[in-house]
Write a structure and sequence with these properties.
- The protein is mainly α.
- The chain folds into 2 domains: 6-52, Orthogonal Bundle (Arc Repressor Mutant, subunit A); 67-178, Tetracycline Repressor, domain 2 (Orthogonal Bundle).
- The chain is built from 9 helices and no strands.
Amino acid sequence: MVRPGGRSARVQAAVHEAVRDLLAEVDRDALTVPLVAQRAGVTPSTIYRRWGDLQELLSDVAVERLRPDTAPDDHGDLSTDLTAWAEQFLDEMSSPSGRAYIRDALLGDPDGSNAGQCSAYAAEHIGVVLARAGARGEDVPDVETAMDRVVAPMMYRILFRPTGLDAAYARRLVAELLGGARS
């Protein structure tokens, strides 16, 4: 069992930072566990023991990087809040670094837990937007419907058909979810 603090947390932070720094400095193909270990100040066996291999380490770093830093903005109504969130999500995930993190999160994820965590981040944010709107008395869809109608099409397009990924696309998905024709 990994403890949330102490040495384990320091090792994880050092290794994650080393990976991020090295990815900014060297070609992805040049990245190795010994190189990461040297930069992080740990032994390669520490990395192998904790993450298994380089791909699982990259996946773990990607999941952490895809975690949102702040709650979604509150603009005062569901349509505006969800549209702003969807536009930002699409912009971040469809960027070259966003795509790389998505690929890493999925490639080093043999049991699907990292993909599930990334999905949970999006669902949590959508849940915040929907709860705020519901508290204001607005009609709101459930989180899973919003995930299916907004997030799922965006992720499919980001991964398999990366054309036409702009704010208008995000606005259209939200408008369709909410039953309007706004774009």
